[in-house]
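Hi there, hope your week has been kind to you so far. It would help a lot if you went through both lines with me. No rush at all, and the record is pasted right below:

***
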Amino acid sequence: MPFINLKVVGKLNKKQKEEIAREFSDTLLKVAGKPKEYTYIVIDEVAGENWAQGEKFFG
């Protein structure tokens, strides 16, 4: 059972989330033979003020 936890800065709309889920599921099916119905995907939308690269915050 594949489990994907994707973290992104900012908000995504429903259509973007659906496309991400479709693409990730398609890739796991094609590359690893994992059925889509067993693939779980969680998308965490993180505010830029809580996301940093090195010393630089994105908020």
DSSP finds one helix and four strands in the chain. Residues 3-48 form a domain with the Macrophage Migration Inhibitory Factor fold (CATH 3.30.429.10). The helical segments are 14-32. The two ends are 35 Å apart (CA to CA).
